[in-house]
């Protein structure tokens, strides 16, 4: 409005969203609203109730994901175990950790540290880092609580 020229950011082609099912899917519509034609992959990871180890059950990505920047969507980062497994799957598909950006709404310090220790090149974007993460995000978003 002041007439000053601004040189800011511009859209960069070659991005790809990957949602960690189920709660990560809640972030897909927002990503599509910003980037209408963005490709989106999915990973289904569930934790064993006894051991708390994350296990990958399903992964589907665009065939050229190894050439793209990946926006990994997971709204609540608690322990980091799920995200670490998701990044391992992406790396197996040729994605370099340096081009992965984790999009998270809430993160615990422990979860963020766990991810950075395993993959120091990854970028984490979050709105809040707090020792206690809100639980049941997916159930509340999808109305299944």
UniProtKB/TrEMBL annotation:
Under Gene Ontology molecular function, one entry of this record is: glycosyltransferase activity
Q: What is its main location?
A: cytoplasm
Where is this gene product found?
Answer: Cytoplasm; Nucleus
Q: Which residues form a coiled coil?
A: none
Report the residue ranges that make up the Phosphoribosyltransferase domain in this protein: 1-130
Q: Which domain of life is it from?
A: Eukaryota
Task: Answer whether the UniProt record assigns the keyword 4Fe-4S to this protein.
Answer: no
Q: Name one GO cellular component term.
A: nucleus
Record keywords, A-Z: Cytoplasm, Glycosyltransferase, GTP-binding, Nucleotide-binding, Nucleus, Transferase
Note the CDD domains from the entry: PRTases_typeI
Under the heading Pfam families, the entry gives:
UPRTase
Describe the family membership recorded for this protein in Swiss-Prot or TrEMBL. Belongs to the UPRTase family.
Name the chain's protein.
Uracil phosphoribosyltransferase homolog
């Amino acid at each position: 409005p002041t007439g000053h020229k601004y040189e800011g950011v511009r859209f960069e082609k070659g991005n790809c969203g990957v949602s960690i099912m189920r709660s990560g899917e809640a972030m897909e519509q927002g990503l599509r609203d910003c980037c209408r034609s963005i490709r989106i992959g999915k990973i289904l990871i569930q934790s064993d109730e006894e051991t708390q180890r994350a296990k990958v059950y399903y992964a589907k990505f665009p065939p050229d994901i190894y050439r793209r920047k990946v926006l990994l969507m997971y709204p609540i980062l608690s322990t980091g175990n799920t995200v670490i497994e998701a990044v391992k799957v992406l790396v197996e598909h040729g994605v370099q950790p340096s081009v992965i950006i984790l999009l998270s709404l809430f993160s615990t310090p422990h979860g963020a540290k766990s991810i950075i220790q395993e993959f120091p090149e990854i970028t984490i974007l979050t709105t809040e880092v707090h020792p206690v993460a809100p639980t049941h995000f997916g159930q509340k978003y999808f109305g299944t609580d």
